[in-house]
Amino acid sequence: MIQYPTKKKSLQSQGVSTKNRGMSLEHDLNITNEYYRVHEIANVHKKPTPVQVVSVSYPSRNQAKITEAYYKTPSTTDYNGIYRGTYIDFEAKEVTDLHRFSFGRIHLHQIEHLRSVVKHQGCAFLIIRFINHDLTFFVPFEKFDQEFKTTTRRSISLAWFESECAIIQNGFTPPIDYLPHVQQWIKEQHEKQY
Question: Which CATH code, of 3.20.20.10, 3.90.76.10, 3.50.50.60, 3.40.1350.10, is assigned to 20-193?
Fold first, then answer.
């Protein structure tokens, strides 16, 4: 066991799983979405962040390096696409805090964007991974937004996610199979209409 200078024990010695710490949520989602596209299950893509390149350094012909760039506009969410005729749009966040998700991790313009998706009858959600617990949650945006609007706290506890949201099981192919949860959301929307 390695001891840190602060006398804190390693995560492994605390009983916390570290098996997937090298894999980022974004990486896992990109692999998952590629799997969905290749198998013609869904068409979901990561949205590029709009950046304006201002200055580029050319130390040699084949080594161009961007030295200055700015965001053109605030980005909306991380991913969007279509699944069985339903538009889906979601934000993905990794959390290192052991017990809570801070509202500061999501921007107001992203919340407003997801509200607009819901208003237009699309499926809006968040995928939130608590890294130190190796837990990934499917969070319907309507539930998240209700908590955001009504709580006086600046965060949502891990316990809330555990009681209110579905856990996405880690897998191999695909690593984060979130579409069964989207399918459940679609089913619930149809039941509300009839």
Answer: 3.40.1350.10
- Bridge partner list, 43: 82
Cβ neighbours around 36 below 10 Å, total: 19
- Per DSSP, helices labelled H in the chain are 25-38, 108-119, 141-150, 158-164, 179-193
In angstroms and rounded to an integer, the radius of gyration of the C-alpha atoms of the chain is: 19
Predicted model pTM: 0.77
Calpha distance 53→43 (Å, rounded)? 29
Q: DSSP letter string over 94-143? A: EE--SSEEEGGGS-HHHHHHHHHHHHTT-EEEEEEEEGGGTEEEEEEHHH
Residue 136 pairs in a beta bridge with: 129
Chain segment 9-31, per-residue pLDDT in tens: 444 444 444 444 445 999 999 99
Query: Which is it for the CA torsion 10, 14, 20, 21, positive or negative?
Result: negative
Do 107 and 76 touch, CB atoms closer than 8 A? no
